[in-house]
Amino acid sequence: MTILCEPAARAGQLSPALGDDVRIAQTLGEVSRLLAADPAETLVVVGSAVDLDEALAFTANLRVERPAAGVVLLRDVLDVVVLTRALRAGVREVVARDDLASLVDACTRSRALSAQVTGVPQPRADERRQGQVITVFAAKGGCGKTTLAVNLASVLAAGGARSVCLVDLDLAFGDVGICLRTEPVRTIVHGLGMVGHVDVAGASSLLTACRPGLSALLAPVEPGDAERIPAALVSELLEVLPTMFDFVVVDTPSAFTEHVLAAMDASHHHVLMTTPDVPALKNLRVTLDMLDLLSYAHDIRSVVLNRSDAKVGLTMDDIERVVRSDIRAHVPSSRDVPISVNKGNPIVLDLPRHPVSEAISRFAREHVLAEPAVVATKSSKRWFR
Ligand SMILES: Nc1ncnc2c1ncn2[C@@H]1O[C@H](COP(=O)(O)OP(=O)(O)OP(=O)(O)O)[C@@H](O)[C@H]1O
Ligand SMILES: [Mg+2]
């Protein structure tokens, strides 16, 4: 169903585009009463006759009170000022009042988003969690960061006992959405208008519900959008998300970008991946030296060796000599890993007794769930710059 707020004379022209079950309200007060009486309603179309300031105040309030409900705003004239103010207030789309085809599309997109947001946990205003941020990084590509991040988040959320948010910081080539077979209707790019004032309602509106207990903040899909994301947005989101989730797992690109450093700064745990080959080990060594240089605490670090059983002429001694620290998880190689990715079902859920799943679950149990959280040293990045 849809609620349309528009005087009756004008509403008649719009209602055919909104379907048979549209309910017409003359004022925003009436919309509020209809919403209160129907907790399942997720779409309000605010007509062009409604004053802009009133429409935006109503939307900003609805975003906090009912994040799953969306507002599509109609205006006689679309200009940049109206669009910017509307997006800041949390309006999902602004459509020219005569453009009925765009109105239909905007309503479809808003309903699809509401269906996803409905599964995202909505913390009450008085409920603030102190979740842990876990950043998974490797300076060499293809070491298994995404595989570990997706499976770690899935195992931590398994059964919905804990709430977990998986953040895809591989902004240009992120594939978390694909691994979880999730449609990227909302991505981090929709948070651009929130820079400087990210709050719980704003952050929740960017998330996609994937499974019970597991939500994701997906990477942009359009080419070029990655460059538009400022590191400040990442920092702000990583301050707000831990107040909403027990764990925030961050997947990263294989480069020390500003965004990765923002995640490292916000993290309680740095998980550094490698594989048993000389280029990956060399890059891990450089990464460890870099983290030392930035004065991040050693005890928040875990080195994870992926494809640990690969027979490639290096002994465990050779590997430990380079790494100079304990290896906290050995994840074996198995063709079942890419098979699970192709199915869009993480291996820890698909085959929980598989040696890969057991290695990741043990790591989660012994090194993530068991250890007290300490946040990374914050001053280091400024010094580095
Ligand atoms: N233990 C494993 N056994 C078999 N295949 C694996 C294993 N871990 C990862 N893979 C496969 O290796 C490929 C690279 O893994 P993944 O995408 O997780 O790496 P990444 O570090 O995220 O790569 P990128 O740097 O491109 O983001 C994928 O096809 C994945 O399915
Ligand atoms: Mg990856």
Provide a descriptive summary of the structure in words:
With 385 residues, the chain is of the alpha/beta class. The chain has two domains: 2-117, Rossmann fold (3-Layer(aba) Sandwich), CATH 3.40.50; 132-384, P-loop containing nucleotide triphosphate hydrolases (Rossmann fold, 3-Layer(aba) Sandwich), CATH 3.40.50. The chain is built from 16 helices and 13 strands. The chain has helices at 8-18, 28-37, 52-65, 80-89, 100-117, 145-157, 176-179, 200-206, 231-240, 258-266, 278-293, 316-323, 336-343, 347-350, 355-369, 380-384, and strands spanning 2-5, 22-25, 43-46, 70-75, 93-96, 132-137, 164-168, 208-211, 214-217, 247-251, 269-274, 301-306, 327-331. The strands form two sheets. An eight-stranded mixed β-sheet has the order 8-9-7-10-6-11-12-13, sandwiched between helices. The protein has a five-stranded parallel β-sheet with strand order 2-1-3-4-5, with helices on both faces. Helix 3 (52-65) runs parallel beside helix 4 (80-89), helix 6 (145-157) crosses helix 15 (355-369) and helix 9 (231-240) runs parallel beside helix 10 (258-266). The site of magnesium ion has 4 residues, from helix 6. The site of magnesium ion (MG) has 4 residues, from helix 6. It comes from Lentzea flava. This is CobQ/CobB/MinD/ParA nucleotide binding domain-containing protein.
